[in-house]
């Protein structure tokens, strides 16, 4: 897919044009994402009460026992989305996937311990820690510029 942006000061309203050989799932997905009117908010549940979650306060999102959880600085919430759906909603400049079952907030990371052979230990500002799976080590190193 190629993305092209043209700046024209005479244009009064932003226009998006999609050129494709045919209508595909990818084209339909792009159209649906562009036409969504609802803001991408993340809803978490605790004690059957729905809470709007502030992305900036999330430490990590992970799956365990068939459920998806969002861990905040102090609280933990259950999400009614799959991990890949949560990943699509999150700001990809702040959040990065570190395994098939976990996404972390880079702003909440205290440090990365590279002394473990083949993996990386991530320590968060709230004192908890987790590990980057071997499959994602090279991706994390690229994101960190190391």
Structural write-up:
The protein has 146 residues and is an alpha+beta fold. It is built from 3 helices and 10 strands; from the N terminus they run H-E-E-E-E-E-H-E-E-E-E-E-H. It has helices spanning 25-35, 83-89, 137-144; strands spanning 42-46, 49-53, 58-64, 67-72, 76-79, 95-99, 102-105, 109-113, 120-124, 129-132. The protein is globular. The mean pLDDT is 89.
Write the topology of this structure.
Blueprint: H1 25-35, E1 42-46, E2 49-53, E3 58-64, E4 67-72, E5 76-79, H2 83-89, E6 95-99, E7 102-105, E8 109-113, E9 120-124, E10 129-132, H3 137-144
Antiparallel strand pairs: 1-2, 1-5, 3-4, 3-7, 4-5, 6-7, 8-9, 9-10
């Amino acid at each position: 897919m190629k993305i092209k942006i043209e700046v024209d000061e005479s244009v009064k309203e932003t226009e998006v044009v999609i050129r494709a050989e045919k209508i595909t799932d990818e084209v339909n997905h792009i159209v649906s994402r562009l036409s969504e009117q609802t803001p991408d908010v993340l809803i978490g549940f605790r004690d059957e009460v729905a809470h709007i979650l502030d992305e900036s306060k999330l430490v990590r999102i992970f799956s365990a026992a068939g459920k998806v959880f969002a861990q905040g600085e102090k609280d933990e919430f259950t999400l009614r989305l799959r991990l890949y759906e949560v990943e699509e909603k999150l700001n990809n400049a702040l959040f990065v996937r570190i395994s098939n079952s976990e996404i972390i907030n880079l702003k909440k990371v205290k440090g990365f311990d590279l002394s473990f052979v083949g993996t990386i230990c991530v320590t968060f500002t709230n004192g908890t820690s987790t590990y980057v799976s071997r499959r994602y080590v090279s991706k994390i190193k690229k994101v960190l510029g190391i």
